[in-house]
Structures are given as structure tokens and as C-alpha cells.
Design a protein that fits this description.
Structural class: mainly beta
Number of helices: 0
Helix content: under 10%
Radius of gyration: 21 Å
Number of strands: 10
């Protein structure tokens, strides 16, 4: 008859190699994470790489998607301008296109100068269609400020980037 069955195993090994076991859609195949407190200061409105906020992953399948999540502790100084903000995004393999840019904003109504510190988070579901190694790197810049810094709140300020390969 039809009923519940239980299959108990200690290890599943692919017919050719262990890496070839195909899991159902939506399963997380691997996770890579970098958590760093390396401080990077930047004095340009164009994007600059954030030192050490970088992670590398080698997808098991060309059909996999990569979920990229970042949380960046960022700081800028508004030198009396009405609108000062920090832009944060990332690139894949050092490409010139900044993926998933996000901007945090603060206003200094008194035009007295204001230090703006915030946690900037973003995620992006990438479809790289490769089994080659991929490196995702965080970039940041300021808008209408004097400079931007990551991981400058205190010695406890940490930024992170996490990569998850998701089966399709």
C-alpha cells in the first residue's frame, strides 16, 4: 500500500563524483562569507573598492543562482551641504558595472556639518551561468560629502558579504 517511507543514510555519493549529486530547486548548495573590520577611507565621488569586503565562490552548476548579501558599516561627513549620502554596491569579477547600488541619505538642515554613520544592506540574486570561480567585491562612494569610510565607527564595526549558491 501507499504510506510513509523512511530512507536513512550516512552519506550520499554521486555515481561519478560526490559533487555531481543534483539537489532539488531552492536548496542551498554552499555558502561563502567574509566578515571584516578593515577600515577603508575614500575621498572621491566615484566608486572605490572597499578593502577586504570580498568573497569568492565556484558554482557547482551553470544553472545555479548566486544570492549576494552585503552589510556595510559606512560613514561620511556632510560638510554643510543639504544632502550627503553614501553609495554602496558590488561588482562581479572586477567588472566596471556596479550591481545593486544602494544609497543611504541624511540631511543637515543647520548646515553645520554632520557625521553620518549607517549600516547599508543590499542583496541581489545573480545568474552567472558558469562553473568558474566568481569574486564579488563591495564598492562605495559618497555624494555631496567630504569623504566616506567603511568600518570607522569603532573597533567593533564590521562589514560582511555572503554568497549562497542556490540550486535551480
Amino acid at each position: 500500500g501507499i504510506g510513509m517511507s523512511t530512507l536513512t543514510v550516512d552519506n550520499i555519493v554521486g555515481a561519478t563524483t560526490a559533487a555531481n549529486v543534483k539537489l532539488p530547486e531552492g536548496y542551498i548548495l554552499q555558502v561563502k562569507n567574509t566578515n571584516t573590520n578593515t577600515r577603508t577611507t575614500h575621498s572621491s565621488a566615484s566608486y572605490q573598492v572597499a578593502d577586504d569586503i570580498v568573497a569568492t565562490i565556484t558554482p557547482k552548476y551553470t544553472t545555479s543562482k548566486i544570492l549576494v548579501m552585503m552589510n556595510v558599516m559606512a560613514r561620511t561627513f556632510n560638510g554643510g551641504g543639504a544632502d550627503s549620502s553614501i553609495k554602496v554596491g558590488f561588482s562581479r569579477d572586477g567588472g566596471s558595472t556596479i550591481i545593486s547600488p544602494i544609497r543611504t541619505r541624511a540631511y543637515d538642515y543647520g548646515n553645520n556639518g554632520l557625521i553620518i554613520e549607517s549600516s547599508v544592506s543590499a542583496d541581489f540574486l545573480d545568474s552567472p551561468a558558469t562553473t568558474s570561480s566568481l569574486t564579488y567585491q563591495v564598492y562605495f562612494a559618497y555624494v555631496n560629502g567630504n569623504n566616506a569610510t567603511v568600518n570607522n565607527f569603532s573597533p567593533d564595526a564590521h562589514s560582511s558579504i555572503t554568497l549562497m549558491e542556490i540550486a535551480q
